[in-house]
Amino acid sequence: MDNYAEQMIESFHRAPKKIITYPGGVTMVTRQDKPELQFDDCHKPSWFDQYESLFIACQHCNGHLSFITAEAPFRHK
Length: 77
What we know:
Blueprint: H1 3-14, E1 18-22, E2 25-29, E3 37-39, E4 45-46, E5 65-67
C-alpha cells in the first residue's frame, strides 16, 4: 500500500464519529461513549480520561467541571 492510501486510512480512523450539541456550541468526537463531565459555564462535554486531575477550569470559559448524573443530566442545545 502506498503512503497516500495509508494516510487516507489513518485519517478515516481519526475522523469524528459523533457530533454532540450543547448550549455553547457543537463538538465532534472520535469516541462513541457518552460524556461523563460538563463545564458549568460553557456546557462543553468532557471525559475523565482527558485529565490527570479534576481540579481544572475550562480554557475557554474558566468554568469548572460537573459530573453528569441522573440528577444533573447533560445539558443539550
